[in-house]
Amino acid sequence: MRIIQFAILGALFIGGLASCQQQNIDAGSNAAATYEANMADIKSYTISEGLSGTTSASGLFFQSTSPGSTTIVPAYGQEIEFTYVLSVLNGPSNVSGATSVTRKKVDSAYATTSTFFPFFAGSLKPGLEEGILKMHEGESAILIMPSILAFGSVTDSNIPANSPVRFDVTLKRTRTEDQQIDDYIAANKLVVTEKTTTGVRFIKTKENPSGPTPSANQTITLNYAGKLLRATTGFTGGTGTDTKTIGVTKFVPGFEEGLAKLKVGEKATVIFPSSLGYGSTGAAQNNTYVIPPYSPLSFDLEVVSVK
């Protein structure tokens, strides 16, 4: 499969915490009534729990419960590592017959086990994204939000439609792409043969000094296998055999740069930042990210033959 950049259309999702399209709150609409009811429930709940955080213009209640030990804050284009517990607030606005607001935990699978997310505008539920942007690395906080900032009118067995929710979040770490790449290389004990000025890490795994060097207008046959740095398996379309005419650009820049360093019969692993891959757009199939935005990639390459 050609590993080239292509446009993404429609709504794209990368997990249950991912953002969905946010409704506008129009005066007199059902959304406005739901929002007001949610905010009343949140106010009642925070008072009953003795919480003393602040509420933003969007309706997000934020209270830091344990400060971070650094001045590092998350930024779009990085990867964030965090733990969380998700609770639904059950109250008069969303549960028939309720007279007070109670909290029910609905997801504690990541209470102590980290989840990792590529962080970009719109990557998470709006309230979760807004809250994380307020945090420092190592900080814990309570985020309480109306349904319009969370799961909206979607309903499932755990979260009724139009429910306000609470996230208890600890931001463990935020990492740049360079940090992700360097950590990956260290964790896998890779020996970097060369780091180019563009940021490509080239790791030659099989040498063939007597192999021919492909020249302009020749066609090479190559094998490749690509994956995200945190993945244990390759992404869809990231593994296969292909051909390429030397001098004609066919693949993303990081792939091209690594491939150009190989003779026939040689193999290498090339690791490169998203600026040389799928950038801030990512790549998707069937409305699901195959490669999220701002994802560094690793490819195992082999030049099989040339003619």
Walk me through this protein's architecture.
By secondary structure, this protein is an alpha+beta fold. 15% of the residues lie in helices and 32% in strands. It folds into two domains: 146 residues, Chitinase A, domain 3 (Roll); 129 residues, Chitinase A, domain 3 (Roll), CATH 3.10.50.40. Strands 1, 2, 3, 4, 5, 6 and 7 form a seven-stranded antiparallel β-sheet that branches. A six-stranded antiparallel β-sheet has the order 8-9-12-15-10-11. A two-stranded antiparallel ribbon has the order 13-14. The longest helix is centred in the N-terminal third of the chain and has 20 residues. The N terminus is likely disordered.
Brief summary:
By secondary structure, the protein is α+β, with helices and mostly antiparallel strands.
Poorly predicted runs of 5 or more residues: 1-15
Mind summarizing the main beta sheet?
A: 7 strands, antiparallel
* Total helical elements: 4
Q: Tell me, briefly, the overall form.
A: elongated
User: What number is the mean pLDDT?
Assistant: 90
* CATH first level of the largest domain: Alpha Beta
CATH architecture of the largest domain: Roll
What is the helix content? 10-25%
CATH topology of the largest domain: Chitinase A, domain 3
Proportion in β-strands: 25-35%
Number of domains: 2
Distance between the termini: 21 Å
The structure class reads alpha+beta
The helix/strand order is HEEEEEHEEHEEEEHEEEE
- Rg calc: 24 Å
Number of strands: 15
